[in-house]
Backbone:
């Protein structure tokens, strides 16, 4: 197998938040004939459910460089309240990747706020001149009228249904592959159910090193804040947040790069996947 060397990420402590010089990581590029097409997604939101977003300045430029280097195309599900402050950064992402909605404020959806979060997010995208077809609910928590509201507000696909999370959602009969629900193309996510526990970086980080042995779904997700060093992350004020801080920063980069290496896939965004395969 051939391999190339990839330095990731590059920069000084001052600008990138890393305490030590970055290590050189290996990304293999062999066995091209085994490549499958998978879907890469990024949830762009405040850092670890705080009111700040250091990751958009510190991590997103490095992530975009990494995606360029690896020829990865992604869908970025963006919390649209970030557009006011980070219009330039988000429009930079949009030059090469798809932008979709991750709600307006990242509040967990409920019967009271769902209509506002879905419609306001779409309205903000339009106000800022961004085409937005897809939606992903914060925390993968949805309401009964989720799909009818998406349709009413002009979305064509969704990636909010996940298999199981104790006390949060339970969709054990979710199909494995994208399917049509109430006229909306639905990309199912898997988490917390073996053998597809880890369809995202949060699970790969939390359960490393055994998580690398689990089979993966055809859709992956990560948050830029997971790649921040612990010193740049908000302090954990709950058990879940302390779990989410596990293996942050350089460890997260290593786990992510190894995952990309292992998958040997062609990565595209949701809308491109629909155009090519649905
Ligand atoms: Zn989120």
Residues:
């Amino acid at each position: 197998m051939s391999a190339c060397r990839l330095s990731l990420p590059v920069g000084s402590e001052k600008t990138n938040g890393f305490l030590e010089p970055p290590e050189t990581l290996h990304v293999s590029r062999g066995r091209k004939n085994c490549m499958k097409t998978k879907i890469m997604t990024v949830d762009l939101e405040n850092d670890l459910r705080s009111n700040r977003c250091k990751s958009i300045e510190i991590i997103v430029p490095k992530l975009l460089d990494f995606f360029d280097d690896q020829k990865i195309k992604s869908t970025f599900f963006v919390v649209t309240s970030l557009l006011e402050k980070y219009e330039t950064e988000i429009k930079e992402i949009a030059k090469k990747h798809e932008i979709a909605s991750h709600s307006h404020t990242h509040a967990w959806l409920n019967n009271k706020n769902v209509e506002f979060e879905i419609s306001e997010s779409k309205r903000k995208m339009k106000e800022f001149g961004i085409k937005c077809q897809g939606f992903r609910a914060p925390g993968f928590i949805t309401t009964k009228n989720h799909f009818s509201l998406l349709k009413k507000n002009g979305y064509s696909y969704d990636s909010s249904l996940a298999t199981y999370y104790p006390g949060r959602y339970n969709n054990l009969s979710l199909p494995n592959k994208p399917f049509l629900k109430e006229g909306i193309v639905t990309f199912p996510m898997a988490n917390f159910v073996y053998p597809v526990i880890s369809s995202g970086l949060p699970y790969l980080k939390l359960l490393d090193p055994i998580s690398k042995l689990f089979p993966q779904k055809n859709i992956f997700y990560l948050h830029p804040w997971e790649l921040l060093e612990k010193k740049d992350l908000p302090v954990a004020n709950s058990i879940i947040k302390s779990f989410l801080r596990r293996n942050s920063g350089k460890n997260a980069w290593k786990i992510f790069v190894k995952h990309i290496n292992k998958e040997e896939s062609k990565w595209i965004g949701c809308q491109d996947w629909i155009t090519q395969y649905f």
User: Anything to note?
Assistant: The pocket of zinc ion is lined by residues 43, 45, 102, 106, 138 (CB under 6 Å). Confidence is low (pLDDT under 50) at residues 1-26. The chain has one domain: 35-277. The first helix runs from residue 13 to 16.
